[in-house]
Amino acid sequence: MDFGDLLSDDEDEVKKVRHLVRYDYVAPISKTFSETTFDVTNSFSYKMAPQYALNFLEYLYMKKNYTEALRLTTQFIKLNNDVPEDFQVNPRDYIELCARCAIKLGKNETAVKLLETIPTSEKDVAVQLLMAECMVETDAKRALASLQRYLDSRGNDYYAWFLISKIFRNSNNKLVELRSLEKCIKIYNQSSLNYAGSEQWKEHESGFWKVAKSRAEELNLIVKDSGRALTIEDAPELRGNEWVLEALANVPEIEETITNISTRNL
After folding, report:
1. pTM to 2 decimals?
2. Contact 181, 252 (CB under 8 A)
């Protein structure tokens, strides 16, 4: 960037430069990571050693070496607990990385146990969403509770509603599943106005989004009474999580949202 641009007399031009968003940014990785191994037992031998350890473990994750990353991260967390308190580092980022490795290896229960060790004050929205992803297949009520906390903080998020639809697909509740997908589609459609065409968006388009759209179209043919109001009787497994029904109460008709998306060139 030419810093002379920031001194421009044109205020609008200055704003454009200042708020430029780079979607193609790729974090540089030190060549030393690919040329050496890392001894986790040295993670506390000097001031920046824990940060170096995290960078190396993230490098292993990026290279999809999840087994080794999980092993070393687990070892680091144990060492962190064993060193004197004055030398300990906040383990939150290490625990999240360890949990993500476990998820990649299909060890969701291990991931949940790891995430539960993060103090409540550190359980931010990223942790809540990650816990929900882990529990969608095994513990619907806890997954919904995590998604509620996530949506309370983050507002509407189309992926969170996609996860909610998966919960109700597993319980064979087509009506609530359809309404959740409608919500997902509506939010995604609105968000696409801002991000259509970016590489990140294309990645979403080729992933879960195609599943959401296809499943919604399929359900729309199956659920004949989709226009009526939802009640707790439609989803008895929702007791204690009635907020889901309240959030789905005024979702627009699925035909309209699907038509809008189908005619757009995302």
Report:
1. 0.70
2. no
